[in-house]
């Protein structure tokens, strides 16, 4: 099992997604159903102004949360975690070995690319992180089940990474 330091970014991301989802659910329930023409015009204008201010504050917060430094650091940490998890799956089965090897190399290359960009931007820590304790699979079944979980979570992580990188690519 990964150590607390390696798990905390994933737990934080999961908590953020859960809070975001529950907030959206609440907003959907609070959406007005029809026009309210009996409200005073001054009240409506004041509310519109407040909505615009909140939207601006929200956009500013999002920009700070999705800063290059934080994103690249989290991407690298996540890729580094998955490098260790994929290494723990070695010996899963002879027919899956080449695919696992290719996946390990691709994840390592991506992590290296992110790290090099962090160095170019002067954002890289002095030392690269060290791998924490990884799961030890005692049986073929555990390796196969672990492989399914790791592959599924890696896929979700990469989909999120893709969206974040697309966001950073926008002018």
UniProtKB/TrEMBL annotation:
Q: Cellular component per GO?
A: extracellular region
Q: Which UniProt keywords apply?
A: Signal
GO MF annotation terms: cytokine activity; granulocyte colony-stimulating factor receptor binding
**Residues in the signal sequence:** 1-30
Q: Does the keyword Methyltransferase apply?
A: no
An example of a Pfam family matching this protein is GCSF
Q: Which GO terms describe its biological process?
A: immune response; positive regulation of myeloid cell differentiation
Q: Which InterPro entries match?
A: 4_helix_cytokine-like_core, GCSF/MGF, IL-6/GCSF/MGF
PANTHER family with a match to the protein in the record? GRANULOCYTE COLONY-STIMULATING FACTOR
The entry's family comment says:
Belongs to the IL-6 superfamily.
What this protein is reported to do is described as: Granulocyte/macrophage colony-stimulating factors are cytokines that act in hematopoiesis by controlling the production, differentiation, and function of 2 related white cell populations of the blood, the granulocytes and the monocytes-macrophages. This CSF induces granulocytes.
Name of the protein this chain belongs to: Granulocyte colony-stimulating factor
């Amino acid at each position: 099992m990964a150590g607390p330091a390696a798990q905390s970014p994933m737990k934080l991301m999961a908590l953020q997604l859960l809070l975001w989802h529950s907030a959206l659910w609440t907003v959907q329930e609070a959406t007005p159903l029809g026009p309210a023409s009996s409200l005073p015009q001054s009240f409506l204008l004041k509310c519109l102004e407040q909505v615009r201010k909140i939207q601006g504050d929200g956009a500013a917060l999002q920009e700070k949360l999705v800063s290059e430094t934080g994103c690249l650091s989290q991407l690298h940490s996540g890729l580094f975690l998955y490098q260790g998890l994929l290494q723990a799956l070695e010996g899963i089965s002879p027919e899956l070995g080449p695919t696992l090897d290719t996946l390990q190399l691709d994840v390592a290359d991506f992590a290296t690319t992110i790290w090099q960009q962090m160095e170019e931007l002067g954002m890289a820590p002095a030392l690269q992180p060290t791998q924490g304790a990884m799961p030890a699979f005692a049986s073929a079944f555990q390796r196969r089940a672990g492989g399914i979980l790791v592959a599924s979570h890696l896929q979700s992580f990469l989909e999120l990474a893709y969206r974040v990188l697309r966001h950073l690519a926008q002018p």
